[in-house]
Amino acid sequence: MSKLISISDELYERLSELKGKESYSSVIRSLLEVKRNKEMILSFAGKDGLDMGAFRDLKKEWKKWSQNYV
Questions:
Q1: What is the 3-state secondary structure (H, E, C) of 13-63?
Q2: Which of 40, 44, 45, 51 is 20 to 30 Å from 5 at the Cα level?
Q3: Residues 29, 20, 17, 56: is their CA dihedral positive or negative?
Q4: Alpha-carbon distance 7 to 16, whole Å?
Q5: Whether 27 contacts 18, CB under 8 Å
């Protein structure tokens, strides 16, 4: 079932750029999935005890590792 929603012109342009050949529903669904994954990780790690600086460093190192070995 379809629903009609209103969004700003700026948001529409950004979604259109992300969309490519996908449907808007697919793009929005994937963006929501990313948020859920982030929330799950943060709840596991504990939001209060998470050092964002260390997290950024870990993310950079993981990216380097994955480029070399994946």
A1: HHHHHHHCCCCHHHHHHHHHHHHHHHHHHHHHHCCCCCCHHHHHHHHHHHH
A2: 40
A3: positive
A4: 12
A5: yes
Buried b (16+ CB within 10 A) or exposed e, 12-40: eeeeeeeeeeeeeeebeeeeeeeeeeeee
Going residue by residue through the chain (70 aa), what tens digit of pLDDT does each one get? 888 999 999 999 999 998 989 999 998 888 887 767 677 677 666 655 667 788 888 888 888 888 887 6
This prediction's pTM? 0.46
